[in-house]
Amino acid sequence: MSVHQSTNIKRITTHVLQEMKNRGEKISMLTAYDFSMAGILDAAGIDIILVGDSASNVMAGHETTLPITLDQMIYHASSVVRAVKRAFVVVDIPFGSYQGNSSEALRSTIRIMKEAGAHAVKVEGGAEIKESVVRILSAGVPVMGHLGLTPQSIYKFGTYTVRAKEEDEAEKLISDAKVLEECGCFAIVLEKIPAELAKRVAENVSIPVIGIGAGPHVDGQVLVVHDMLGITQEFKPRFLRQYADLRGIMTEAVEGYIKDVKSKDFPSEKESY
């Protein structure tokens, strides 16, 4: 059996993702925020595209994910969805659009699904957001959970260091993962936690577990595409593998263009009408 057999599937669904976990096929997931990038990822065979609130950082230049609004997330998500033919598109519900109010969570979700055409939403937190998760699921919308380092709570944590290194926090994380599974979440993202803990979670829940800085023993991996492609250079955590240096390639291309314009080499006679 080829580990790449999922690339032959016409459309990835929650059912397909569950089957992938059941047979031990790893799930690939990357972020995208615009039509062009999403089209490239989809054509390459990515399983899940996450329209992450990380757009706040990499697209808008904010220090945290907190400033991005629901309207902005819908804009990015609708751009991505229009490019995708195969991948499963998950959209982050931004900070302040679901915490503490299940009715608000449902309203935000309905806007994302109707206006962007998303396939699922993602929320950060465990037992404390159970009511919102259940409310969203009651409307028939798939929900992906997110535990460990949850960037929307960065001011609570005060640091981006590894989470759940102490046993009490680790036990709460496992408990929260089970809560999310029992609620009906189709998958969980684990961010920046010890690899052995992530392994325990993946073995203790039946739904797919996707890691980012959570080691190799989970059911799949996710990275921010701008980090993975080397477009952003300032962010280089241990868990990041950079697969290209697009910043260098793009800089060289722009410098070449400037040089040709300044020297009057561009446009040439063949490039003129």
From TrEMBL:
Location(s), subcellular: Cytoplasm
Domain of life: Bacteria
Involved pathway(s): Cofactor biosynthesis; (R)-pantothenate biosynthesis; (R)-pantoate from 3-methyl-2-oxobutanoate: step 1/2
Statement: the UniProt record of this protein carries the keyword Magnesium: yes
Alphabetical list of SUPFAM superfamilies matching this protein: Phosphoenolpyruvate/pyruvate domain
UniProt enzyme class: transferase
Residues bound to 3-methyl-2-oxobutanoate: 53-54, 92, 122
InterPro entries tied to this protein: Pantoate_hydroxy_MeTrfase (IPR003700), Pyrv/PenolPyrv_kinase-like_dom (IPR015813), Pyrv_kinase-like_dom_sf (IPR040442)
Enzyme Commission number, as recorded: 2.1.2.11
CDD domains given in the database record: KPHMT-like
Cofactor(s) needed by this chain: Mg(2+)
Cofactor: binding details: Binds 1 Mg(2+) ion per subunit.
Keyword Transferase: yes
Active-site feature positions: 191 (proton acceptor)
UniProt catalytic activity: (6R)-5,10-methylene-5,6,7,8-tetrahydrofolate + 3-methyl-2-oxobutanoate + H2O = 2-dehydropantoate + (6S)-5,6,7,8-tetrahydrofolate
UniProt binding sites for Mg(2+): 53, 92, 124
Keywords, ordered alphabetically: Cytoplasm, Magnesium, Metal-binding, Pantothenate biosynthesis, Transferase
An example molecular function term from Gene Ontology annotations: 3-methyl-2-oxobutanoate hydroxymethyltransferase activity
PANTHER family, A to Z: 3-METHYL-2-OXOBUTANOATE HYDROXYMETHYLTRANSFERASE
UniProt similarity note: Belongs to the PanB family.
Function: Catalyzes the reversible reaction in which hydroxymethyl group from 5,10-methylenetetrahydrofolate is transferred onto alpha-ketoisovalerate to form ketopantoate.
Self-association state and partner proteins as the record states: Homodecamer; pentamer of dimers.
Protein's recorded name: 3-methyl-2-oxobutanoate hydroxymethyltransferase
Species per Swiss-Prot/TrEMBL record: Echinicola arenosa
Lineage of source species: Bacteria, Pseudomonadati, Bacteroidota, Cytophagia, Cytophagales
